[in-house]
Amino acid sequence: MHTIFRIAAALALTGASLPALGASATATRSWQFKPGANAGLTVRNLIGNVRVERGTTPGIHMTASTAIDAASQAEADRLIKLVEFRTSDAAAGSRFDVRLPREHFPKIYWEKGASAWYSLSYVEHLGERIRLSGSRSEAPEVRVDLVIRAPAGATLAIHNRFGDASAEGYAGTLRLEGGSGQLTSTGGEGEVTLDNGSGAVVVSRHRGRVVADTGSGSVRISDCQCEIIADTGSGSVDIVRGSGSVSADTGSGGVQVADYAGPFSADTGSGSVNARGLTDVRSLEADTGSGSVSVEGDLSALERVTIETGSGSVKLRSTAQPSMELRIDTGSGGVDVSAPGSSVREKDDVTYVRMRDSTHDGVIDTGSGSVTIDFR
After folding, report:
1. pLDDT category, 16, cuts 50, 70, 90?
2. SS3 per-residue string spanning the chain
3. What percentage of the chain carries pLDDT values higher than 90?
4. Other beta carbons within 10 Å of 151
5. How far apart, in whole angstroms, are the C-alpha atoms of residue 223 and residue 226?
6. How far is CA 53 from the centre of its chain?
7. What is the structure's pLDDT at 9?
8. CA neighbor of 38 nearest in space, from 97, 90, 2
9. Is the confidence at residue 58, as pLDDT, over 50?
10. pLDDT for the residue 113
11. pLDDT tens, 312-343?
12. Cα–Cα distance between 283 and 263 in angstroms, integer?
């Protein structure tokens, strides 16, 4: 059952002169969830920044800092008291919702909201339909910043529509969802999922599993020992240093990987795939619509190769040869092979390259791009 919490709330109101609206009010409230909430707490916030930290005490601790800028001090002081915090402390079904009742907040300021008289923009949040205005003079500016401290092993799902969300040193299962702000996880352990609408996703020094999904923003992952699954609609994917496995999918952005150990898979609609410094690559897969594929490193561990491009070229360079037979088929591009000790033959416009004992098979297929093989 949802209740409106006002217990143990420390309320501080301050006024300050603002050039656009005239006055502001702030309030800080705190909650302590029972240890059972570690099994699953869902947080839903409309606007503001969220920071997740590793806690050192049982249960999950929550601090909400609310700020309102309004046309007058009386209006700011009135509205600050009307922001609702609804909680349910019920083990795996625990919830924390920040609600802006429409009767008090029919319209709020957001920098990307509609600012012309002929256009309107709205957002749906917790059953409320709130108008978003891009003009500070016609709506109050509201933000609720959250700091969440959860002990190791906790499970958190955080939905933050407008604003950034970040996690620092979190150990457990974490899901961060955003609309247009940046999602960040640093020094974490376990499974982290970052799902963004149009903002960037940044992960560093993670151990475990990383799922990064963004509609049009970029993904950057560095210094991780983890399984990586990255998906963007039109943004790029950049992965630097680490080990584990990589699976990257972009609609029109490119995929860049450097100094990574483990199997590698990339799929792009029109972007290129560039990887260098790869090691311990047992499986290599790349599929592009019109982009090129370039892979460099120690590819001697390869057991499976599947590369296909519509119109892009393919370049493979390795400091050592795998035990493999490569089947190379190009529509109109040429084939250049430099692999000392290997055998190269052509049959029916297909080039076969046999290296070492040819224990494994690989396929390279291009529509109109050339293929370059340089295995030392």
Report:
1. very low
2. CCEECCCCCCCCCCCCCCCCCCEEEEEEEEEECCHHHHHCEEEEEEECCEEEEECCCCCCEEEEEEEEEECCHHHHHHHHCCCEEEEECCHHHEEEEEECCCCCCCEEEEEEEECCCCCCEEEEECCEEEEEECCHHHCCEEEEEEEEEECCCEEEEEEEEECCEEEECCEEEEEEEECCCCEEEECCEEEEEEEECCCCEEEECCEEEEEEEECCCCEEEEEEEEEEEEEECCCCEEEEEEEEEEEEEECCCCEEEEEEECCEEEEECCCCEEEEEEECCCEEEEEECCCCEEEEECCCCCCEEEEEECCCCEEEEECCCCCEEEEEEECCCCEEEECCCCEEEEECCEEEEEECCCCEEEEEEECCCCEEEEEC
3. 86
4. 17
5. 9
6. 18
7. 35
8. 90
9. yes
10. 84
11. 999 999 999 999 999 999 988 899 999 999 99
12. 5
What pLDDT score does 19 carry? 41
Residue 168 phi, psi (nearest 5): -130, 115
Asked if residues 356 and 321 have their Cβ atoms less than 8 Å apart, the reply is yes
Q: Which of 149, 145, 99, 90 is nearest to 124 (CA)?
A: 99
Q: What is the pTM of this model?
A: 0.89
Please report the pLDDT score of residue 228 as a whole number: 98
Taking only the tens place, the pLDDT of each residue in 199-224 is 999 999 999 999 999 999 999 999 99
pLDDT at 2 over 70: no
Q: Which of 165, 128, 130 is nearest to 148 (CA)?
A: 165
**Unique residue bearing structure tokens 């240093």:** 241
The CA-atom distances, in angstroms, between 162 and each of 65, 108, 114, 126, 194 are 15, 12, 15, 14, 15
Six token digits for residue 7: 């217990």
